[in-house]
Amino acid sequence: TFFDDSKEMSWPLAGQIVMDYSMETAIYDKTLDQYRTNDSLCISGNVGDDIKASADGKVKSVFNDKENLTSVVIEHGNGWLSTYSQLQDNVLVKEGDIVDEGAVIGNLSEPSYKSSLLGPHLEFKVMNNDSCTDPKIILSQEE
């Protein structure tokens, strides 16, 4: 099944938003002590919490960098992608895997140095046709 904008994604983690999506207006980042835009939704959790696929899809990539730690990118079809960052190294999926909505793809890590003051949190990014989209627009209204 392909995702489209008539559907909703499920929340990958139940938690409070600790840094909102904001591409139009700069918002304060307390870790970096500066105002900046933010292309993801930062959702608080506890180290080890399960992170779940927000919709059916295929794992496009799994990568690691010092700013986002381990990230998983899932392709949902029709130009939709979701990215889950700040994960522990031992994710449960690999490139090419097919995942169902709600499947556990990994676990939450301690935050990286670039967002340490937010506490443990998932950086959840949604893109449609190579453009960032506010995840709150497409996420189910129930966490």
Label this structure with key terms.
eight-stranded antiparallel β-sheet, 1 helix, two-stranded antiparallel ribbon, mainly beta, 143 residues, globular
Overview of this protein structure:
By secondary structure, the protein is mainly β. The chain has 1 helix and 12 strands; from the N terminus they run ββββββββββββα. It has one helix at 135-138; strands at 17-19, 22-29, 34-38, 41-44, 50-52, 57-65, 69-77, 80-87, 98-99, 104-107, 121-128, 131-133. The strands form 3 sheets. Strands 1, 4, 6, 7, 8, 9, 11 and 12 form an 8-stranded antiparallel β-sheet that branches. A two-stranded antiparallel sheet has the order 2-3. A hairpin with a 3-residue loop joins β6 (57-65) and β7 (69-77). It starts with 16 loop residues before the first strand and ends in a 5-residue tail after the last helix. The mean pLDDT is 94.
Shape: globular
Query: Helix count, per DSSP?
Result: 1
N- and C-termini, Cα separation: 22 Å
Radius of gyration: 14 Å
Task: Put the structure in a nutshell.
This protein has 143 residues and is mainly beta.
List the helices and strands and how they pair.
Layout: E1 17-19, E2 22-29, E3 34-38, E4 41-44, E5 50-52, E6 57-65, E7 69-77, E8 80-87, E9 98-99, E10 104-107, E11 121-128, E12 131-133, H1 135-138
Antiparallel strand pairs: 1-4, 2-3, 4-11, 5-10, 6-7, 6-9, 7-8, 8-11, 11-12
